[in-house]
XrtA-associated ATPase (Opacimonas viscosa), 432 residues
Amino acid sequence: MYEAHYGLNAKPFQLTPDPEFFFASTLHKRAMSYLEYGLSQAEGFIVITGGIGTGKTTIANSLLANLQGDIVAAQIVTPKLSPDDVVKMVATKFGVDVTDKSKTQVLDALEQYLYALAKDNKRALLLVDEAQNLPLETIEELRMLSNFQQAGKPLLQSFLLGQEELQPILRAPNMEQFRQRIVASCHLAPLNAEETNEYIKYRMISAGWKEQQQDNNSTNIAKHDLFSADALQEIYLFTKGIPRKINTFMDRVLLFGFLEDMHTFTADDIQKVIAEVSAEMFTPEENEQALYNLQQGVQAFNAQHANSPASVPVQVSDVETHQGLVMKAAVQEDANVHHTQVHKHATIPTKTLRTEELLAAENIDISALKDSLLSETKRRELAEYDIEYYKTMLDELVFALDDAIANKLKLTQYIDKLLKRKYQTYVKDKES
């Protein structure tokens, strides 16, 4: 819709992962290097984790787009599959018929398929996306599939991609055998401010945007900045450097510019778009929005009083909890206080502003901010929630371990019976 307005030949910020638009940040390059290393080893598991929207699937698609001809790849996105179901899904993805077949028959057919690939000097690669949804026993089943070998070489290699929840699953005591087969792992974090700017520029150029453009009033070719530095900072603060959020938001920004016939964006323009999308897209929680407003006031206040010895810069800190990002604003509360002891490199302020004065000066709704910041009771509730969450996870791990021990005990008892029968048979034969 807006492509022609900016001189583009494609949408630069579509949500569907596209290898053509893959931006390699420092961590993404590392993750891709691990995947390529794993391919070169032709064995073991590679594990890539990261938050929602950090680019795990994009990395997987980029890898698949550049595979050599001797690798046959299949990709599955996993709901909570049982071990039997995951075996059938893997076989189906590789084109193996599973109709009316038992698990044993499916495994047999899959093994024959893998042997046939090996005879053609090919090997199989399985990419498991959203792996955090898999139960422990299903991940163990994937490990068992890696036991298919020929002449000491594995016939199937697997890469696991999942959210942060995958990490504690793999740390479980009864996952030791699986951990020993992990040859490399990497965790993807959001982009920093500089990488966010480069990400936006890269995707715009990949979609056909010309950074060097002709001036309207002359034949001179000059650099054209679509976004001001302040605008890019606003984009980073709002999206927190998460690629999927950047894509969603930037698509809306470009649409806004098209409708308003704009060819450059300032911080004020970005704030207008933020105001529009906050109620309909990835809206921050009320306390996050309050902090965002406070950040703007803090930045303005520090800029205005940067050279004033009568005040101390205000700081805003982020506190991350299991429930999400809980924002905590730290501002100085003392009014008309003369400090007698300070850091040796600090200047002695003659006065500090109260919180209410600072917020009022920046037109921030004090009552809404107070309501949105977490109370001690709420923080305690969140802490109790965290405790219950990890207790539940621990209970599940204990249950799985108990089940494994029980199965091992049954197997030991069965072997004991066999040995006793064999001994009894041996004694009878000797006596006769």
Observations:
- The longest strand covers residues 71-77.
- The chain has 16 helices and eleven strands.
- The longest helix spans residues 376-431.
